[in-house]
């Protein structure tokens, strides 16, 4: 298993949880972003800076993704591609995406995009809370434990 992080919008606290997990279970983590990122010195943790442009980081991840890899992202279209390729995806709030719930998420995303295109003001997600951080850490632990079994 390799852990891929869609890092442009990933909160720093989530990255820290991932860094600790990588060291604890000796799994490689790659952060992909269109800007330079700081990572702790570790042979297991690296960052890749991709060019600017629409979905460049997403494309980098999906081209390298192997079945069984984990992707941390809140990007719904990327998540659909991850699931299609046999990967697992969770968002920074700890929600695991599945073949059962991704269609609903895509439909909701498209609906919200239509509202915004029509001039409707929509709010983004609320700030990451302490319980969200805990939910992410718990979901990550469950996935890593399943991998070891």
Tell me what you see in this structure.
- It is a single chain.
- With 149 residues, the chain is an alpha/beta fold.
- The chain contains 5 helices and 6 strands; from the N terminus they run βαββαβαββαα.
- It has helices at 12-25, 56-64, 76-84, 102-117, 130-148; strands at 3-6, 29-33, 45-49, 70-72, 88-90, 96-97.
- The chain has a 6-stranded mixed sheet, sandwiched between helices.
- α3 links the parallel β4 and β5.
- The longest helix has 19 residues, at 130-148.
- It starts with a strand and ends with a helix.
Q: Within the largest sheet, what's the order of strands?
A: 3-2-1-4-5-6
Tell me about the largest β-sheet: 6 strands, mixed
Report how far the terminal alpha carbons are from each other: 13 Å
Question: What proportion of the residues is helical, as a percent range?
Answer: 40-55%
């Amino acid at each position: 298993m390799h852990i891929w992080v869609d890092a442009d919008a990933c909160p720093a606290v989530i990255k820290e949880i991932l860094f600790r997990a990588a060291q604890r279970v000796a799994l490689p983590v790659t952060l992909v972003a269109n800007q330079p990122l700081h990572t702790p010195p570790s042979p297991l943790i690296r960052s890749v800076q991709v060019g600017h442009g629409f979905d460049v980081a997403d494309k980098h991840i999906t081209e390298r993704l192997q079945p069984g890899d984990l992707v941390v992202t809140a990007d719904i279209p990327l998540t659909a591609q991850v699931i299609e390729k046999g990967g697992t995806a969770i968002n920074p709030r700890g929600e695991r995406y599945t073949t059962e719930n991704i269609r609903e998420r895509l439909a909701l995303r498209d609906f919200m995009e239509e509202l915004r295109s029509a001039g409707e003001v929509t709010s983004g997600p609320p700030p990451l809370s302490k319980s969200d951080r805990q939910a992410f850490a718990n979901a990550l632990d469950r996935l890593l434990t399943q991998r070891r079994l």
